[in-house]
Structure formats: structure tokens, C-alpha cells
Design goal:
There is one protein chain. By secondary structure, the protein is mainly beta. Helices cover 6% and strands 42% of the residues. The chain has one domain: Jelly Rolls (Sandwich), CATH 2.60.120.10. The strands form 5 sheets. It has a 7-stranded mixed β-sheet with strand order 1-3-4-11-6-9-12, with no helix packed on it. A 7-stranded antiparallel β-sheet has the order 2-21-18-23-15-14-13. The protein is globular, with a radius of gyration of 18 Å. 43% of the residues are buried. Bound molecules: the ligand O=C(O)C(=O)C[C@H](O)C(=O)CO and zinc ion. The site of zinc ion has 4 residues, from loops.
């Protein structure tokens, strides 16, 4: 498992492109036949992927890294499938996940196995995991079960729908909050006007992008912004002090996952457009 340490905003001001990408960009996901995990010391948030091909993939990590006998001994897990149909088996119970279906797996599940229905067209399971103190039930939600929130307008090129899956009024969890945002065709901007939330960190995974498309992901303190160029199926870590917003060369979808002091989605500190630099 790859480890990412935390960064002070005063240090990040001095980072060049390479160093910014090294600390915040996650490019190693969705390798066929492999489980990939990146452990961030920002709220001990694990970002990962599993792309089972012929054989099932087991969710596991070094017991020393985890400080626990098995992966979910002290953690909870959110999964969203961004590929073709697959199955997640949790302690022997099978949950079939279609594209954009979500599964929450609670603390204490000992065996989590990922399988694809068709090895030639595999499932692509995206994983977010955070420390947990209590067991909540394992629950599946399809996109139609998520709470939709329509925002933005075509005039500002940010018309989009936020689908909340794991959140205060949806699937219950200890601290993980997770969902996805789909841009309407012809719209390019997400999360602008932008915000920070010192109470929570956040990770974005951009996907459903054309091969030659890019997203300019904005980060940094509101008056010290930087950008990271992102390609399809890449994720980016946003520390609690950083804005997180992007503009693409074509419409795209992204999964957001958060952890920290609260689960209040609307607890954001909006950045006035007159102040951003
Ligand atoms: O499009 C948006 O706006 C979002 O999806 C915002 C994210 O969900 C977010 O940053 C929540 O804090
Ligand atoms: Zn946010």
C-alpha cells in the first residue's frame, strides 16, 4: 500500500508541478487484475480500486500498515462501480453492482471479495475507506436510490447533478460521506464557486472522460491556487484547507468522498468570487 503524508499549506505554496502531482495526484488506480490502495494521512483516508479479471480479488493490506488483523477490523468502506457488472462478496453474501451502484460495508466484515461478471469487460470498483468506531449495516444503493441535487446553469457552464449515496440522510456510516456528480452535456465546471471545509478532507475521482480529455483540477488555499491536470480515472487528494474544483475539456463525472469532524454536506466555507486568486 502506498503511503501519502500530510502537507502544510505554507510548504505547498513552494511546490512545482512535479511535487504537487507527487503529493496529491493518484494515477495508479484501475490496473486489471490488481487491488491498488493509497493511504493518506489526511484523516487516514484510503483511496483504492479493484479490477477483477478472471479471478476474484480479496481486499487486504499489510497488517502492520493497517494496525489491525484484517482490513475492516477498525474501518468502514464505500465502493462505487465505474465499470461493467460485478459482484462484491461480504463474508459470503453476494451484492451485484452495476455501473454507478454503490455498496457500503460496515466495520468488522472479515472477507471482502471482488468479482467481474465478464473478464473481457470487467467491473471497476472504486474504494474509499475511513477509520470507524461502530458497525453500521452493509447496504447497497443504485444511482436511482441516491439523493439527487441539481445545481448550476448552462450560462455558467456548471449545470450538474450531485448524487448523495453515503450521507446523513442516506446510507449511514461513522464518518465516510460519498457520492458522485454528473455534469450535464456541454457543461465543464464543477464546484465553482468553490469552497473549503476545514472540518473534512476530500478526494475526487474523475472518470467517464474521453481519452484525450483533461480536467484542470484547482487546489490550494483560496488566495494561493494551483492546478493539477487530471486524466480519465485519476484521483486527487484535497487537504481540509484546500479548494477542490475543476474545469474539463469535455463533460465528465466525478466521485467525491469525505471524512473528518462531521458529515454535514452543506458545512462548507464558500469562497467569494471576488476573493479567489
Ligand atoms: O459539483 C459539486 O459542487 C460537488 O460535487 C461538490 C462536492 O460534492 C464537494 O466538494 C462536497 O464538499
Ligand atoms: Zn468539498
Amino acid at each position: 500500500m502506498e503511503i501519502r503524508y500530510s502537507n502544510h499549506p505554507q510548504d505547498v505554496k513552494k511546490y512545482d508541478t512535479e511535487e504537487l502531482r507527487h503529493h496529491f495526484l493518484i494515477q495508479s488506480l484501475f490496473v486489471p487484475g490488481e487491488l491498488k490502495l493509497v493511504y493518506s494521512h489526511n484523516d487516514r483516508f484510503i483511496t483504492g480500486s479493484a479490477v477483477p479479471v478472471k479471478e476474484a480479488i480479496k481486499l487486504e493490506a499489510d497488517a502492520k500498515d493497517m494496525g489491525a488483523p484484517f482490513f475492516l477490523a477498525r474501518r468502514e468502506l464505500g465502493i462505487i462501480n465505474i465499470g461493467a457488472k460485478g459482484t462484491v462478496k461480504v463474508d459470503g453474501t453476494a451484492y451485484e453492482l452495476d455501473n454507478k451502484d454503490c455498496l457500503y460495508v460496515g466495520l468488522g466484515a472479515e472477507e471482502v471479495l471482488f468479482e467481474s461478471a465478464d473478464a473481457a469487460n470487467p467491473a471497476k470498483f472504486y474504494l474509499n475507506s475511513t477509520p470507524a468506531h461502530k458497525q453500521y449495516p452493509t447496504v447497497k444503493a443504485a444511482q436511482k436510490d441516491a439523493n439527487p441535487r441539481h445545481l448550476g446553469s448552462i450560462e455558467t457552464s456548471n449545470e450538474r447533478t450531485i448524487y448523495q449515496y453515503i450521507h446523513e440522510k442516506g446510507i449511514q456510516s461513522c464518518q465516510l460521506v460519498m457520492g458522485l456528480t454528473q455534469l450535464d452535456p456541454g457543461n465543464m465546471w464543477n464546484t465553482m464557486p468553490c469552497h473549503t471545509h476545514e472540518r473534512r478532507m476530500e478526494v475526487y475521482l474523475y472518470f467517464d472522460m474521453p481519452e484525450n480529455g483533461v480536467v484542470f483540477h484547482m487546489m490550494g488555499q483560496p488566495t494561493e491556487t494551483r492546478h493539477i491536470i487530471m486524466r480519465n480515472q485519476e484521483a486527487v487528494i484535497s487537504p481540509s484547507w484546500s479548494i477542490h474544483s475543476g474545469v474539463g475539456t469535455a463533460a465528465y463525472t466525478f466521485i467525491w468522498g469525505m471524512a473528518g469532524e462531521n458529515q454535514a454536506f452543506d458545512d462548507m466555507d464558500g469562497v467569494p468570487m471576488t476573493e479567489i486568486r
